[in-house]
Write a structure and sequence with these properties.
With about 70 residues, the chain is mainly α. It has one domain. It is about 65% helix and about 0% strand. The longest helix has 17 residues.
């Protein structure tokens, strides 16, 4: 398990608790927006990595164990 996946594993439950989205899917099928906790988690990861949103998204595309 990578350092980034460990960070995500720790931050997602915190973000779900803070936003109250614990039972919601991160990206619901059929369109619509992302769950608030997914956006908060992405923002936390961006800060943790000290990168732009674009670079963070590009990195996550290379990590199917996180985005899958």
């Amino acid at each position: 398990m990578t350092q980034i996946s460990r960070f995500i594993g720790e931050i997602v439950p915190v973000a779900q608790n803070v936003t109250g989205d614990g039972d919601e899917s991160a990206a619901p099928e059929g369109g619509g927006g992302f769950a608030d906790y997914a956006l908060v988690s992405l923002h936390c990861l961006r800060i943790y990595l000290d990168t732009s949103y674009r670079m963070t998204i590009d990195l996550l595309k290379e990590m199917p164990q996180i985005t899958g």
